[in-house]
What we know:
Layout: H1 3-11, H2 14-20, H3 22-43, H4 80-115, H5 117-132, H6 136-147, H7 151-160, H8 163-178, H9 181-188, H10 193-205, H11 207-229, H12 241-248, H13 257-284, H14 286-291
Amino acid sequence: MDDAATHSALVAGPGEEDRRRPGSSRLTLVALSILALLVTLALSAPLLPIQDPVATDYDHVAEPPQAGHLLGTDLHGRDQLSRVIWASRTALFVGVVATGIALTVGLIVGGLAAYGGKTIDSLLMRIADIFLSFPVILGAIAIMAVLGPGSRNVFIAIAFFGWPIFARVFRSSVLSVRQSGYVRAAKVLGAGDFNVFMKHVLPNSLTPLVSYGALAVGGAVLAEAGLSFINLGVQRPDPSWGLMLSESMGQIEQAPWLVLAPGVAVTLTVLIFIMLGDAATRALDPRRRMNS
């Protein structure tokens, strides 16, 4: 890369970056649009003219998509469209709350590790390593076995094994930012450690967490579906994408629409958050912008 190209890459703003990669920009816009639609449907579910998601009708069991039931009915005659929409409320709630809890704990632990000295740093990171040695979904299953099944315990179980990644990412970012020139300059000018941390270190250390946070929400949505699939998450008759898949697995050949609707919902939601996390990484990481 010659000097002119290097200078252009360094000064290019987000708008210019998007123009250089129109395909990526369009995909991000599509992902944001679908997410906005999903959130709108989830929040407005009680106001929508749809059927009761738990009301059974055994005169219309496992009916294919038709005018009265756009996504068909399940094995208990419940409207699939209504259940998919209501299940999105649970999925997004668990994803956001579980990620929020994990992020908060990770920030506290990562900050203490970065500023607490070698002994505290080593102790906290070894604890994080212990948690990281367990896959999140397996750890969540163990926690659910202790707390018991139910939607209220799902986000606790997911967050319990999700905070170590946030802690490690935040610790690494803080240690890097602390060595920057503007932080040293602030200290030379007499700023206290607390003021330096709040005004300079913290805001500039959160950038890596934005992209990982989006990925974590998608992972939490997938974990909730997995826990509900094995009957440790949302309990019948409440709607959940994972529970809907579990109830319909034996009917794939006879009634494929029962599996298709929740399966597409889970896949699309997780894919959206993966795309947004990747877009955030490209937008916030100047090194990746320069190499694009």
